[in-house]
């Protein structure tokens, strides 16, 4: 019996396929077109989705390439069988998984080439080259290497360096220092600060012998003079340093205040801001102070002059007799002796008696050093003239009656203690006009956990384009599958009743019509009525006999071909009628 069931299974499915084909042929043309269009659309959508997923994502390999460099790079990529895409602005993109491999392989070939040449120019020196040509090549090499080094700065897209080296002279007075100029092409939206410009200045100056920093000029692609920012006489560069110093001072005070409050209130529960008024004026003072007159004992002697002469001497006149030799002797005078401690700069006389008729006069002049003090004072720049501080402290979290943590404001005494602590931390000085304001307020609670809904919203926001694209594809496939294909396929694969049996579950056994619809079926009632009219038999008895006969036939079919019986029952269950 099992072998018979296996033999009957193949013809049944084959018959169903043939029947589906016949039913498809019997469909109207509009349904045929709709069915085929739906299948083609589903196939196209599925294939498109697969191709879209398998298409590699491209990443930028190089950007802002010159036309010549771009052509060399694309030619090399074609030789390496690496797909690429060209974009505006000299952008070349390759598949994301081949970006680094392509860069390494291109770098091995020396691509893309830099805008200038470096010391590789010296590798191919021709035999018999003149000294002048060799010097020119060396200078070109220096310029190219400097340009490459400057291009390593993140904000610099390209650079060109020009060096003017004067001819050396044996005369010292005629020697001139070399000069250099640097042209920078910056990336859009980027600038160089004073420190970076100063770094370029020192880099170029240190690479060329006898090149002072003041002889280096730097300009950008817009013609703006950048080297002026780092000059010693430029106020703009100095202002940048001043602003940086002010920010450093303010940040230092803020850190002091927060460091002293965080151990008390916890991290993040205290915020401080400090504004510093810094004086950058330069002041130089020179003062010369003289000490009032004092006794000469502690004073240093500068000079001393001693003069001696004879006054009213008694020596006899000599020479030719005359008026002078006949003069009478003058009156004798007592010697004058100044006591010690005479005023500085005065003559000190000391006399010595020589006899009754004369004395020796001595004059002593002493000069003392003037006691003076010269003081040169230079006030340093960056002096803090005034501080203004604002401090905000969060409410304390204290348990309430129910044990829940509730924010509680601080008391006035606690606020005053905070005020005193902050004053000590910032070095509060009322004489210079410092101000301080401490406020106790509740902070906003920003540490709320991220909910699932927020995560979903973030994911949809980040991947909105992809979700919309694949969502529309899925909706289209489902609509075509369940709205068009499924109804038509259901009509095509629905099993047809055997020959001689009406649709609705009829079977034929030995040429007899078997009704499986039950005792109340319309076909069974019609057959019973016909049998009653022909044989003058009770219709009810004939109907019962017919039902028993049909039931016996069904049992035989189930025994002989259980697979076919099971398939018929499945069709009854799945049928919508």
Descriptors for this entry?
single chain; about 575 residues; alpha+beta; Alpha-Beta Plaits; GMP Synthetase, Chain A, domain 3; three-stranded mixed sheet; 13 helices; about 20% strand
Structural class: alpha+beta
Shape: elongated
Beta fraction: 15-25%
Helix content: 40-55%
What would CATH call the class of the domain at 239-292 and 360-444? Alpha Beta
Output the CATH topology of the domain at 239-292 and 360-444.
GMP Synthetase, Chain A, domain 3
Tell me about the biggest sheet?
Answer: 3 strands, antiparallel
Strand-helix topology:
Layout: H1 2-26, H2 29-54, E1 58-62, H3 67-79, E2 85-87, E3 91-95, H4 99-108, H5 131-151, E4 156-164, E5 179-186, H6 194-207, E6 216-220, H7 235-265, E7 270-279, E8 283-290, E9 301-311, E10 347-355, E11 358-368, E12 372-379, E13 383-393, E14 396-399, E15 405-408, H8 412-426, E16 435-440, H9 452-462, H10 464-493, E17 506-509, E18 512-515, H11 522-535, H12 539-560, H13 562-574
Parallel strand pairs: 5-6, 13-16
Antiparallel strand pairs: 1-3, 2-3, 4-5, 7-13, 8-12, 9-11, 10-11, 14-15, 17-18
Helix pairs in contact: 2-10, 7-8, 11-12, 12-13
